[in-house]
Specification:
The protein is elongated, with a radius of gyration of 26 Å. The strands form two sheets. The chain has an eleven-stranded mixed β-sheet, sandwiched between helices. The longest helix has 20 residues. The protein is of the alpha/beta class and 452 residues long. 33% of the residues lie in helices and 22% in strands.
């Protein structure tokens, strides 16, 4: 007698291939990039948006270079505590006469500056944003919004008190891929989301923030004491300057560098603008034992109003960036350059494998009846179509900058405002607190604190 090997996996694989005579196809759709046309190409000097740049490091140099390509936008001053970046700002803007300074307050005092773009270490975010708002300046501030929970709420208060536009720099919020994911979810593509998975992995020294310090960095070319801000006072250390994300005193680790992007994209896609109820984290320093105190592997399970959101961030293994949204009607997979929709019918595609426990005659009768009730008409077999949408970039910097500059002129609110940015940042702080406390944490809205 021939041995029967009826496993659930074999049944599902067979059903997927046969699909009651159906067919599986994949269709690719190209999404148009957002045109940078919100501001006219020819703009009178009096109508231009003039901004000051604070921080011209790795991210700041990219923001500066991107911002000045937007029609009607002009950089009229730059500030950085390291003198080499004064030279860099002039090179990027192709303006040898660009005013530069170590003292960003000089930019805030200038009447000809409409707004600020800031890309400074996390432990400087609160001071720069609050000072800008109090000076009547709108500000684009890099993510994560805050270095601590208390900092974030102080920034929200300053923005609201001064009626200032504050936009945080998780750029995917303005990407066409994120907009498409939002529309598909709210059109019911996957039904009500039941779980979210957010993952990203790197496997190289630069990805782990082991950046080479500028060769001329010294107490003469850098205002080290000011750079430390409210962090513990230590002697000049060029690695702490270049690799500040590695230390809790200045940064927020992979949570503030990577997780906040993933969470912000999730919040826009699903229409969530809230702080999670709880977080439980595991991780450690497994590969990059270079003196850092922030984990190089961080896994977190959040509770967003009862929906589990799992996050995995690692610096020791390269894995694709992926935001996976799962519901009863299918899956939305958002990658770095594409969005894949895989619909699921949620019904049996073949007779139930449970009937292999029936006697032969009983099973034959069941199978015959099942096919009579479920098989499609010949020539009208169902087609299951996966759709892949491709776009410019899940992290689209220039459209995000344009959103900010438009808001400066129109005074219309932005999506990733201070409240949104704070909600995303608090989730990152909860992940870090759970890791360092080695226990689950919850959010106490009444006291605006993280509780163990």
């Amino acid at each position: 007698m021939k041995k029967r090997n009826f496993s659930r996996r074999a049944f599902l694989q067979g059903g997927a291939a046969a699909a009651a005579g159906g067919l599986l196809l994949t269709r690719t759709v190209m999404l148009d990039a957002q045109p940078l046309s919100g501001i006219p190409q020819a703009v009178a000097p009096s109508d231009r948006v003039r901004f000051g740049m604070i921080g011209i490091g790795m991210q700041g140099s990219g923001l500066l270079g991107g911002a000045i390509t937007i029609p009607g936008v002009e950089c009229v001053g730059a500030a950085d505590l390291y003198d080499g970046r004064h030279t860099l700002a002039k090179e990027i803007t192709a303006n040898p006469s660009l005013p530069t300074t170590r003292h960003y307050q000089e930019l805030l005092d200038r009447k000809d500056i409409d707004c600020i773009v800031a890309a400074v270490p996390d432990h400087w975010h609160k001071r720069v944003v609050v000072d800008a708002c109090n000076a009547g300046k709108d500000i684009y501030c890099e993510k994560p919004m805050s270095h601590t929970v208390a900092d974030g709420f102080a920034m929200v208060e300053a923005a609201q008190k001064n009626n200032r536009i504050v936009q945080i720099g998780s750029q995917r919020v303005s990407s066409v891929l994120c907009a498409k994911a939002h529309d598909m979810y709210h059109d019911g593509a996957i039904g009500d989301v039941e779980m979210v998975e957010l993952t990203l992995g790197r496997n190289d020294p630069t990805g782990a923030w082991e950046y080479p310090p500028p060769p001329d960095l010294s107490p003469q070319t850098l205002d080290w004491d000011t750079w430390l801000n409210d962090a513990p006072k230590i002697p000049f250390n060029n690695l702490h300057f270049a690799r500040w994300r590695c230390w809790r005193a200045y940064g927020t680790g992979v949570a503030g560098d990577l997780m906040v992007h993933l969470l912000s994209g999730m919040m826009v896609t699903l229409g969530w603008n809230e702080i999670p109820r709880s977080a439980i984290a595991l991780g450690g320093i497994y590969r990059w034992k270079d003196g850092r105190d922030m984990p190089d592997l961080h896994t977190v399970l959040f509770d967003y109003h009862g929906i589990p959101v799992y996050v995995r961030l690692g610096l020791g293994t390269e894995t694709p960036e992926l935001a996976r949204f799962m519901g009863p009607k299918g899956i939305l997979d958002a990658g770095e350059f594409d969005l894949k929709y895989s619909p699921q019918a949620g019904v049996d595609m073949d007779p139930s494998y449970y009937t292999f426990s029936f006697p032969a005659k009983m099973r034959e009768e069941y199978v015959k009846q099942w096919h009579a009730e479920h098989d499609p008409v010949l020539g009208k077999e169902p087609v299951r179509e996966d759709v892949v949408y491709r776009g410019h970039d899940w992290d689209d910097m220039r459209p995000h900058l344009q959103t900010f500059f438009r808001a400066v002129k129109s005074r219309k609110p932005v999506v990733e405002d201070a409240v949104f940015g704070n909600n995303a940042a608090v989730a990152c702080h909860m992940a870090n607190e759970s890791y360092f406390r080695q226990k689950p944490v919850t959010w106490d809205a009444a006291s605006k604190t993280v509780k163990s």
